[in-house]
Amino acid sequence: MKVLLAGANSYIGRMLIPFLLEKGYEIVCLVSDKKRFQEHNDFANGVTLISGDLLREQSIETLPADIEVAYYLVHSMAQSQDLAALEALSAYNFVHALDQTDCRQTILLSSLSHGNGQSKRVESRKHVEDILKEGKSALTILRATIIIGSGSISFEIIRDLTEKLPVITISGWINPPCQPIAISDVLTYLESVKLNEKTFNRSFDIGGPDILTFKEMILEYARIRQLKRRVITIPFLPSGILSYWLSRTNSFGYAATHNLASRLKGGTIMHEHAIQEIVPNRCLTYKESLLLAINHTPVKSNE
User: Fold this and answer.
1) Which of 13, 51, 259, 265 satisfies CB 3.0 to 4.6 Å to 8 for a cystine?
2) Does residue 129 lie within any of the structural domains?
3) 69-81: per-residue pLDDT in tens?
4) Quick check: 138 and 106 in contact, CB under 8 A?
């Protein structure tokens, strides 16, 4: 089976490629720079590369007509005022190119959020969903919360903060409960919904079994690493100041930390569990996902 991957350079894209290759899929990656992709991806020789910048429709090479499934994993971390327009243009150009193929299903990984903490970003992603729905192929949307895996932004920020700071200061409004999910479970869902007609033109929340606050996630990491850490909550700390401070104390920039803080502020727990009826899967606990991430193990064992 031939699948198209847009967003191959994203964290999820990089993890999904070997996962699908191992299962025997033929993968076509839409990338803006073939040479850069080949230099930075260990599995570049196992996929077919199609050149194209989704913000410039004329640059997109013709996609293979026999693509059956397309993954849209394009997600901007930018804080530009033009974010919504750029994400909409990218989605529109993707749909226009994909509609020239025989693709039956598009799978979108989006953000799980039911709060008001990131209204502009939520509206932008909702607009992307609406654009993808206009395509010829059926759309399946998976909405994930905090993704825990070696290399994921959420995990790396938690690790950086906990490893470096004996006393960690966070804002009170980023402490609503969330439902972190292991990267291995995200990959399982992304693959398992493929060409499953029960998932066509539907959206699903996905998350792990534990409901935790950001403080609890930090302290669980500290327990595993046997680190003595104290977390202090400061009420009413502005999001911009918090994001700036976070970006100064870990390896990621302001945009990544601001995005994480915004998602935590809104609260990110599953409001429906329909995915379990279609794809029965015992998701890893937060502790189990942390242990895999700390040990740089990409996926859980099937044994």
Assistant:
1) 13
2) yes
3) 999 999 765 555 6
4) yes
